[in-house]
Amino acid sequence: MADTAKVAVISKDQLDEGASLYAQGGISVVLDKTDSIQSHIDDTLVAGAGLCDENAVRYTVEHARENIEWLIQQGVSFTRDGVTAETYHLTQEGGHSHRRIIHSADATGREVETTLLGKAKTHPNISLFPFHIGIDLITSNKQLDEQPNRALGCYVLDIEKDETNTFLAPVTVLATGGAGKVYLYTSNPDVSTGDGIAMGWRAGCRIANMEFIQFHPTCLFHPKAKSFLMSEALRGEGATLQLANGERFMERFHPQGELAPRDVVARAIDYEMKRLGHDCVYLDISHKPAAFIKSHFPTIYKRCMQLGIDMTQEAVPVVPAAHYTCGGIMTDLHGRTDIPGLYAIGETANTGLHGANRMASNSLLECLVFARAAADDIKQQTLRTPPQVPAWDDSQVYPAKEAIAISHNWDELRRFMWDYVGIVRSTSRLHKAKQRLALLQNEIRDYYSQHHISADLLELRNLADVAELIIDSALMRKESRGLHYTLDYPDSQATTKAVDTIINPRSQDHAA
């Protein structure tokens, strides 16, 4: 894209900070001769619990290999299998029927992201803006009262200078990740506050399937771990889940045991923890040779050792944690949203690939495939300089005297989302969450309208909007399917075709 147009990259933290940086497992792609495109498609459809868009699944899987080859051309170093110089080590993860996860040891996301960022830093057409956070999208109907509507850019807060800038662009791409920080416990970094989803929603984009929040089954349980993920590749290589007494339990919940889809594993762990009143369960790979563990999982081994846990000798305490937002802004196969000139990519988007449950290691693949699709689509357009728009007006607000209201509301929001809108839900819990959220949103709107903006305030506002979308979507689905499990409707509506939960901002009465 940067070869044909100037690109501004806005990052609200350091340029490399984001969920992709911490992706351990890898990228799913058909490379082994015993595997097939159709098998990858079938596995994805099964994991998606009847809600995947088969066209999106096929498009993604069929374009996987060319995107992996492109990464290799850019200098990304994947782990070799030791057999030949040309072949790569592939691992197997939950839901996959074959070994098809290409990886860079246990730090695939870091390898991909740092390699590409290194190229971006030296590209003459790419300008990088760290510590800048989007406030709201600029659209023609809102800022200029003109139709047809079109995205014109974004109002952006320079966090370090505490000043607001106007970024105008013929094309705007939202690639801000998911919203794991809406929950008390999450594997996501602090930046994952659903900013792009919330901005797209406020600008007029339809949002789909926000009830499907994936809880990763195995997040390291330790007071100093801060959301450190124990990769699913551990279970792919033979790690077992155990209770405190060493008893395995996954066979009671699914015939695939530890390699069952993530939603099944997370619910099983949640059930056992609540049944026994335990704070965690245990992940054990100590039966494997120490050299194997250290070579295949060096990052995980190092972090565990820093916390006094030797995974070559003992089981590791783990708990489920909010991990991936399967829903998001509705897009087509080019990444285009409802608003011309606005694209959404990655976890911010709902492409139809994941359905009701994302299969392991399909996330980085989706980022690659749809980023290229969007770039190819943008290249075919005649890009015109957008018109001038009014500057951000903060003349009627004043500096906040204290930040306690923001931190208190942030904590309350994340706690009731965890308690009422977590792994297992009920209609009464969802209504309680909705009532609590309504009070919070009134406070947030009043605070936002009266005070100078800050990064914390913007994130709180976005999290509240995303929380509303999750709650309303969950209330609209009168069944249990994939990642959405409710005590009031424990069975899926198997006799009817599964349908997406779509929330339209032009409809005021979208919640059940």
UniProtKB/TrEMBL annotation:
The coiled-coil regions, if any, are 423-450
The Gene Ontology biological process terms listed for this entry are: 'de novo' NAD+ biosynthetic process from L-aspartate
Principal subcellular localisation of the protein = cytoplasm
UniProt entry keywords in alphabetical sequence: Coiled coil, FAD, Flavoprotein, Oxidoreductase, Pyridine nucleotide biosynthesis
Short name of one Pfam family for this protein? Answer: Succ_DH_flav_C
**Positions annotated as active site in the UniProt record:** 262
Involved pathway(s): Cofactor biosynthesis; NAD(+) biosynthesis; iminoaspartate from L-aspartate (oxidase route): step 1/1
- All copies of the FAD-dependent oxidoreductase 2 FAD-binding domain together span 5-364
Q: What is the reaction catalyzed?
A: L-aspartate + O2 = iminosuccinate + H2O2
What's the top EC group for this one? oxidoreductase
Q: What is this protein called?
A: L-aspartate oxidase
Q: Give me the gene this protein comes from.
A: nadB
